[in-house]
Amino acid sequence: MDRKNKKPGVIRRFISYYRGHMKLFALDMFCALIISAVDVIYPIMARNALNDYVAPGAETLRPFLILIGAAILMHVVRAICSYIVTYWGHVLGVYIETDMRHDIFSHLQKLGFSFYDKSRTGKLMARCTTDLFDVVELAHHGPEDLFISTVTFVGSFIMMALINWRLALMLMATVPFMLAFVMYLRKQLNLTSRKVKESVAGINADIESAISGARVAKAFTNEEHEIEKFDRGNEKYITAKSMNYKAMGRFMCGMEFFTTILKVLVLGFAGILIIKQRGHMTSNDLFVFLLYITSFTSPIRKLAMFMEQYTAGMAGFRRFTEIMDTEPTIFDEPGAAELECVRGDIEFKGVSFSYDEGRRVLKNIDLSIPHGKTVALVGPSGGGKTTLCHLIPRFYDVSEGSITIDGHDIREVTLRSLRGNIGIVQQDVFLFAASIKENIRYGRLDATDEEIIAAAKAAEIHDDIIRMPDGYDTVVGERGITLSGGQKQRVSIARIFLKNPPILILDEATSALDSATEAKITSALERLSEGRTTLVIAHRLSTVRNADEIIVIDSSGIIERGDHRTLMEKGGAYKLLNDAQNLLYGGE
Ligand SMILES: Nc1ncnc2c1ncn2[C@@H]1O[C@H](COP(=O)(O)OP(=O)(O)OP(=O)(O)O)[C@@H](O)[C@H]1O
Ligand SMILES: [Mg+2]
User: Fold this and answer.
1) Does residue 483 share a domain with residue 564?
2) For 47-69, what is each residue's pLDDT tens digit?
3) CB within 5 A of ion ligand 2: which residues?
4) pLDDT digit string (tens) for 91-139?
């Protein structure tokens, strides 16, 4: 992978998002230029109109009216440009935002189990949503604000200096103070709005956890406790928001005050100049200066805003790049071959595995599951059964040893072809909040309705589905909550029938069932595993009695292997497990 070698700087990566939208960006900048030009030219035009055509002794109104007409026209153009900047400029922002969101979402799809083990859903969601808002504010307003401010500021200063350099310098002298003042107030505003954001994030997290844990809260009648917990967050929000308004109030009134005082200062200073140095300054000049004050102060305000946007936007973009730079730990090796479909002989050779450095979950596992045979994994909870199953489709890579399918090391074939040949019914079944039909179709996206129904019949879920209010179109709740445990399992089995892979992994597929449903599922699974290489885990040992081989594992590795009869005769760990279950479930 050459991805590691090419990591341009953050700013260059940021700029690269404009690449696909250069036309729109150029239009935005062009209109921004016109806006600044009008702001710079208009006051001087007004001054000339007053000086030349409204002076005492002017004979005709015509040229003055023409100039007024031109001024109106200029402002019409300015208004159109301002519309374009607001509309298309924001649309440009939205394009960039969606490009970034597409990239981060696609990248998240590439990252493996180990990444999701360590990440929190809420945080990842924020990376894809709120963080991007700050980035896009900068992407859209940043260049435009910087551009308009610089042009207007420099332009107004030059114009004012041309009219009266003394007064212009006096104004310039106030700029550092004003900048310091604005930056101080904006910083306050920024700090308080960050506090507001944090408290909103806290409230969101509280709501999310309370909603997903609502059933637990009710079971323990802890609703009051939840409300109290929530109210604490809500109160924090009141404090944060009022601090924010306080800062906003100071900023707004400070800015107004500053601009007005500046006008008064100009008035005073200009008055003195008019009185003391007749000829150097006229009242028309004064009028124009007053007009310029706004175009002089607003860039300062915008500049301060830009700095803040830059800090927040870049921080958001850095968080974005952090995820984009997280390399998938599991990927196709260069030159990986397609795993041709396969007889399905699986072989574990000296496989060890640990999730984190240090604690080994699987130790030195040697195991072979020949084509078409069924091997059952049993053992204590936490013994590593699910982990072992997750190594075959390469959800995680082995730490030592190797796994082969039909003699091919699974690290040397493409992930797509490997996973395409494996059907896995996971221990905790996940259904999407969509219709049952769509959930089954997840097994093979191009399946027809008939094939879906056939798969549902094979998984013995068809009868349950047609009894539901909307049949196959019944929408299951989030994570499939409106279905029973057994129904969810059968939907996930139907997916595998549809996928029709040569290798089958069943993790606890029959643990949540009553005996009638269990019988249904067992027969569905027997049908499913016919002719397929099958690795099955079940806590209810009765369901794996017919397996060709039973493997007992715990954290020290494989402790026993053989078929049911041999293991029972041996009288070891398997017999102990079996006897304990017979006591529990009253088996024979
Ligand atoms: N994603 C993970 N990250 C770190 N450790 C994990 C992870 N998943 C499981 N473990 C640890 O690995 C060990 C084996 O877990 P595993 O889920 O494979 O057990 P199991 O045999 O399937 O248990 P059960 O019968 O309860 O399903 C456990 O000690 C568990 O704490
Ligand atoms: Mg498990």
Assistant:
1) yes
2) 888 888 777 776 777 888 888 99
3) 386, 427
4) 999 999 999 999 999 999 999 898 998 887 777 888 888 888 889 889 8
- Do 144 and 177 lie in one domain? The reply is no
Residue 542 maps to a domain: yes
Q: 365: which residues sit within 8 A by CB, 6+ positions away?
A: 348, 350, 351, 352, 388, 401, 553, 557, 558
Does residue 422 sit in the same domain as residue 568?
A: yes
376 and 458 belong to one structural domain: yes
DSSP symbols for 129-194: THHHHHHHHHHHHHHHHHHHHHHHHHHHHHHHHHH-HHHHHHHHHHHHHHHHHHHHHHHHHHHHHH
Using CA positions, which residue lies closest to atom 13 of ligand 1? 382
Ligand index nearest the alpha carbon of residue 379: 1
pTM over 0.85, yes/no? no
Q: 369 and 463 in one domain?
A: yes
Ligand nearest to the CA of 354: 1
Structural domain of residue 140, as residue ranges? Answer: 9-164+309-329
Establish if 417 belongs to a structural domain. Answer: yes
Answer yes or no: is the C-beta of 390 below 6 A from any ligand 1 atom: no
Distance in Å, CA 535 to ligand 1 centroid: 17
Query: Do 182 and 158 reside in the same domain of the chain?
Result: no
**Cα 60 from chain centre:** 66
Residue 109 within any structural domain of the chain? yes
Within 8 A by CB and 6+ apart from 116, the residues are none
> Looking at 406-517, which runs of residues are DSSP E strands?
408-409, 422-425, 503-507
355 lines ligand 1 (CB under 6 A): yes
Nearest CA to ligand 1 atom 17: 386
Residue 384 alpha carbon, nearest atom of ligand 1: 18
Indicate whether residue 361 lines ligand 1 (CB < 6 A).
Answer: yes
Q: Same structural domain for residues 145 and 198? A: no
Of all atoms in ligand 1, which is nearest to the CA of residue 117?
A: 1
143 and 93 fall within a common domain: yes
**Which ligand 1 atom minimizes the distance to the CA of 113?**
1
Q: 234 in a domain, yes or no?
A: yes
Ligand 1 atom nearest 390 alpha carbon = 18
CA of 386 to the centre of ligand 2 (A): 4
Q: How far apart are CA 461 and CA 448, in angstroms?
A: 17
